[in-house]
Design goal:
Structural class: mainly alpha
Order of helices and strands: HHHHHHH
Number of strands: 0
Radius of gyration: 20 Å
Largest sheet: none
Strand content: under 5%
Shape: elongated
Length: 219
Amino acid sequence: MSQPTVSPQQTAPSFGDVTLEHYLSELAAKVPAPGGGAVAALHVAQAAALVAMVARYTTRTKDTENRPVIDRIIEAADAARARSLALADADAAAFTAVGAAYKLPKDTDDQVAERTAAINAALVEAARVPAAVVDEADEILSLAGELLPIGNPNVVTDIGAAADAARAAAQSSQLNIEINVASLPAALGDDFAAALVRVETIAARADALHAQVLHVVRG
C-alpha cells in the first residue's frame, strides 16, 4: 500500500532569508508554524554563532599557540549554525506535515491505514528534527567548553550566553520530542529515548559552564 505524500501547500521562506521582524511577526501570529521547535533550532544557531564569534576574537598574536584549535572551533561552529538554520526550516515543515496527515480522509479501511501510516511518518519526522537539535546543542556545548580556557577573556560572557542558548535549545526540543513520541507506537517512539536522556546531561553541562563563566567574571 503506497503512503500518500504529505507536504505543506505553500513553501515558506527560509528562516535564514527573512528579517527578524518578519520572523517574530510570524511567531506571534495565529498560524501553526513557526513555533517552539523552530525557536529551539534558532536558539542553538545563536549559540553556535556566539561560539564562532568568541573564537574569531581569539586570533591575536598571543593566541598563536592555540590557533589550530581555534580554527577548528570556528569551522565546526559555523557548520553547526548552518545546520541549525536548516533544522528550523525542517521543523516548520514537519509540523505542517503532521497537521496535513491528520486531515487525510478516513472513510474506508484503506484510507484509515494510509492515514495512520502518514501520521506516524509525520510524527517521526517531527520528533527527529528536535532530536537533531539536541545533537547540535550537545556539540556546541562541547565547543564552548573547549573554548573557555583559551578564549579571549574580553568576550568570555558570550561563552556563557552560548551555553544558556544551547540549554534552552535542548530543553525546548525535549518538549517537542515528548509530545510527538506520545502519539507514536512504542516501537517507533523508543528510538528517541536516548535523545531525551541526553537533554538532562546537556542541561547540567550548560549550568556548569555558566557557573564557570560567572566565576571568571567575578574573579
